[in-house]
Amino acid sequence: MTTPPSAFPDVEALVVDVLQADPALSTATVAVAPPAGFDGTQRAVLVNRRGGAWVGDLHVDMPLIEFEVYGPDKSTAHTLANAARRALLAAIGKQYGTNVISDVEEQDGPRWLPDYLYRAANRYVCVIRLSVDVF
Predict the structure, then answer these.
(1) Global model pTM greater than 0.85
(2) In which region does residue 45 sit, left (phi positive, over 0), alpha (psi from -120 to 50) or beta (all else)?
(3) Element (DSSP H or E) covering residue 135
C-alpha cells in the first residue's frame, strides 16, 4: 500500500535554493517565474516541476524538474545550463531541511529550444529527475 506524504516537499523552492547558493550562477536570476520586465535576453534559470511521482513505501518524491535557461547570447545560455546541471548533480547526498537529495538523473538536455513568447531569447531546456527522501 502506498502512503501519501505527510509533508510533500516544495521541490521547486529546494532546487532554487541549491542553484542560488552556487557561485557559478551568481550572475543569473534563479526563480520559478521570470522577473518583471523579462524579455528572454537576461541571464536566468527558471525552475519548474514538470511531473514525477511519490513512492509512498519508500517516502521518496521523484519529481521531474525542468530548467529553462536564458542568456544574452547562445553561448552564455549554454554555459548557465551546464552550471545549473552541475550544481544540482553536486547536491546528491545533501540534506535540505527534512529532505535529502538521494539521486539526480538527467532525463533530457540541455537542448536548444527557441522561445516563441520571447522572440529575442537564447534558451536551453533541461529535464532532470530527482529522488528526494522525505523524513
Answers:
(1) yes
(2) beta
(3) none
* pLDDT tens string 82-93: 999 999 999 999
H helices of 1-135, in order, are: 11-20, 74-89
Q: How many residues does this entry show for the chain? A: 135
Q: How far is CA 67 from CA 82, 97, 111, in A?
A: 11, 23, 11
The whole-chain average pLDDT of the chain stands at 93
Burial of residue 52, with CB atoms counted within 10 A of its CB: 0-12 exposed, 13-18 middle, 19 or more buried: middle
Q: Compute the distance between CA of residue 96 and CA of residue 117 in angstroms, rounded to an integer.
A: 34
Per the rule left: phi > 0, alpha: psi between -120 and 50, beta: everything else, 59 is left
